[in-house]
Amino acid sequence: MEKDETLELYRMMVETITANEQRRQQISSVFITLIAAGFGAVGAVENLEPIYVTIPAAFMSSIWWSQVRFLKNLATAKFHVIDQLEKKMSFQPFYEEWVFLKRKRTEKANQKWFRLGLSQIEMLVPALIFIACIIHVIIFTTQYLVDLC
Protein backbone atom coordinates (compact mmCIF):
# COMPACT_ATOMS: atom_id res chain seq x y z
CA MET A 1 0.00 0.00 0.00
CA GLU A 2 1.38 3.39 -0.96
CA LYS A 3 2.16 5.97 1.68
CA ASP A 4 -0.38 8.49 0.26
CA GLU A 5 -3.11 5.85 0.21
CA THR A 6 -2.33 4.83 3.80
CA LEU A 7 -2.42 8.43 4.94
CA GLU A 8 -5.72 9.08 3.13
CA LEU A 9 -7.34 5.96 4.60
CA TYR A 10 -6.01 6.93 8.02
CA ARG A 11 -7.49 10.42 7.73
CA MET A 12 -10.83 8.97 6.64
CA MET A 13 -10.92 6.50 9.55
CA VAL A 14 -10.12 9.23 12.08
CA GLU A 15 -12.95 11.37 10.62
CA THR A 16 -15.41 8.47 10.82
CA ILE A 17 -14.44 7.69 14.42
CA THR A 18 -15.10 11.32 15.30
CA ALA A 19 -18.48 11.21 13.55
CA ASN A 20 -19.27 7.95 15.36
CA GLU A 21 -18.52 9.53 18.75
CA GLN A 22 -20.72 12.52 17.92
CA ARG A 23 -23.53 10.17 16.89
CA ARG A 24 -23.27 8.34 20.24
CA GLN A 25 -23.53 11.62 22.12
CA GLN A 26 -26.52 12.75 20.05
CA ILE A 27 -28.33 9.45 20.57
CA SER A 28 -27.83 9.67 24.32
CA SER A 29 -29.06 13.27 24.36
CA VAL A 30 -32.20 12.40 22.41
CA PHE A 31 -33.09 9.40 24.57
CA ILE A 32 -32.44 11.12 27.89
CA THR A 33 -34.53 14.09 26.74
CA LEU A 34 -37.45 11.88 25.66
CA ILE A 35 -37.37 9.82 28.85
CA ALA A 36 -37.08 12.91 31.07
CA ALA A 37 -39.95 14.58 29.19
CA GLY A 38 -42.10 11.50 29.73
CA PHE A 39 -41.49 11.46 33.46
CA GLY A 40 -41.95 15.23 33.59
CA ALA A 41 -45.35 14.74 32.01
CA VAL A 42 -46.38 12.54 34.96
CA GLY A 43 -46.13 15.58 37.22
CA ALA A 44 -47.51 18.04 34.69
CA VAL A 45 -50.48 16.14 33.27
CA GLU A 46 -53.35 15.61 35.65
CA ASN A 47 -54.33 11.96 36.26
CA LEU A 48 -51.50 10.56 34.12
CA GLU A 49 -50.55 7.22 35.63
CA PRO A 50 -46.75 6.69 35.78
CA ILE A 51 -47.13 3.21 34.27
CA TYR A 52 -48.07 4.85 30.94
CA VAL A 53 -44.63 6.46 30.92
CA THR A 54 -42.66 3.67 32.57
CA ILE A 55 -43.36 1.03 29.92
CA PRO A 56 -42.33 3.23 26.96
CA ALA A 57 -39.30 4.45 28.96
CA ALA A 58 -38.20 0.83 29.53
CA PHE A 59 -38.58 0.14 25.81
CA MET A 60 -36.69 3.33 24.84
CA SER A 61 -33.86 2.67 27.32
CA SER A 62 -33.35 -0.83 25.91
CA ILE A 63 -33.17 0.59 22.38
CA TRP A 64 -30.82 3.32 23.63
CA TRP A 65 -28.54 0.74 25.28
CA SER A 66 -28.50 -1.38 22.11
CA GLN A 67 -27.60 1.57 19.90
CA VAL A 68 -24.83 2.74 22.21
CA ARG A 69 -23.44 -0.81 22.39
CA PHE A 70 -23.49 -1.09 18.58
CA LEU A 71 -21.73 2.25 18.14
CA LYS A 72 -19.20 1.31 20.84
CA ASN A 73 -18.43 -1.95 18.98
CA LEU A 74 -18.19 -0.02 15.72
CA ALA A 75 -15.69 2.35 17.36
CA THR A 76 -13.64 -0.64 18.54
CA ALA A 77 -13.53 -1.97 14.96
CA LYS A 78 -12.56 1.46 13.63
CA PHE A 79 -9.74 1.74 16.17
CA HIS A 80 -8.56 -1.72 15.08
CA VAL A 81 -8.33 -0.51 11.47
CA ILE A 82 -6.57 2.67 12.59
CA ASP A 83 -4.10 0.53 14.54
CA GLN A 84 -3.39 -1.56 11.44
CA LEU A 85 -2.86 1.57 9.35
CA GLU A 86 -0.59 3.11 11.99
CA LYS A 87 1.71 0.09 11.83
CA LYS A 88 2.61 1.27 8.32
CA MET A 89 3.45 4.78 9.55
CA SER A 90 6.62 6.10 11.16
CA PHE A 91 4.68 7.65 14.06
CA GLN A 92 1.61 6.05 15.65
CA PRO A 93 -0.39 8.76 17.47
CA PHE A 94 -3.35 6.63 18.62
CA TYR A 95 -1.04 3.89 19.86
CA GLU A 96 1.05 6.44 21.78
CA GLU A 97 -2.11 7.97 23.24
CA TRP A 98 -3.29 4.55 24.47
CA VAL A 99 0.10 3.77 26.01
CA PHE A 100 0.04 7.09 27.83
CA LEU A 101 -3.56 6.66 29.06
CA LYS A 102 -2.91 3.08 30.14
CA ARG A 103 0.09 4.22 32.20
CA LYS A 104 -2.00 7.00 33.80
CA ARG A 105 -4.84 4.56 34.55
CA THR A 106 -2.40 2.17 36.21
CA GLU A 107 -1.04 4.99 38.38
CA LYS A 108 -4.55 6.14 39.33
CA ALA A 109 -5.73 2.56 39.95
CA ASN A 110 -3.23 2.36 42.77
CA GLN A 111 -4.85 5.46 44.30
CA LYS A 112 -8.55 4.64 43.80
CA TRP A 113 -10.34 1.39 44.48
CA PHE A 114 -13.24 2.06 42.11
CA ARG A 115 -13.45 4.01 38.87
CA LEU A 116 -15.95 4.06 36.03
CA GLY A 117 -14.88 5.20 32.60
CA LEU A 118 -17.09 7.22 30.27
CA SER A 119 -17.93 4.15 28.20
CA GLN A 120 -19.12 2.28 31.28
CA ILE A 121 -21.25 5.24 32.39
CA GLU A 122 -22.62 5.60 28.88
CA MET A 123 -23.80 1.98 29.01
CA LEU A 124 -24.85 2.11 32.67
CA VAL A 125 -27.35 4.99 32.43
CA PRO A 126 -29.81 3.32 30.02
CA ALA A 127 -29.39 0.00 31.87
CA LEU A 128 -30.27 1.61 35.21
CA ILE A 129 -33.28 3.39 33.70
CA PHE A 130 -34.45 0.08 32.23
CA ILE A 131 -34.03 -1.74 35.56
CA ALA A 132 -35.86 1.02 37.46
CA CYS A 133 -38.72 0.92 34.94
CA ILE A 134 -39.02 -2.87 35.15
CA ILE A 135 -39.07 -2.69 38.96
CA HIS A 136 -41.84 -0.08 38.74
CA VAL A 137 -43.86 -2.27 36.35
CA ILE A 138 -43.49 -5.24 38.71
CA ILE A 139 -44.57 -3.19 41.72
CA PHE A 140 -47.48 -1.66 39.80
CA THR A 141 -48.62 -5.07 38.52
CA THR A 142 -48.33 -6.64 41.97
CA GLN A 143 -50.31 -3.81 43.56
CA TYR A 144 -52.93 -4.03 40.82
CA LEU A 145 -53.34 -7.78 41.39
CA VAL A 146 -53.55 -7.30 45.17
CA ASP A 147 -56.24 -4.66 44.68
CA LEU A 148 -58.23 -7.06 42.48
CA CYS A 149 -58.29 -9.70 45.21
Question: Can you tell me about this structure?
Answer:
The protein has 149 residues and is an all-alpha fold. The chain has one domain. It contains four helices and no strands. The mean pLDDT is 89.
> What would you call the shape?
elongated
What gap, in angstroms, lies between the N and C termini? Answer: 74 Å
Number of domains: 1
Low-confidence stretches: none
Portion in helices: over 70%
- Structure classification: mainly alpha
Annotation field: number of helices: 4
Cα-atom radius of gyration: 22 Å
How is the topology of this model organized?
Blueprint lengths: L2 H42 L6 H36 L6 H17 L8 H31 L1
State the gist of this model.
The chain is mainly α and 149 residues long.
Quick tags:
4 helices, mainly alpha
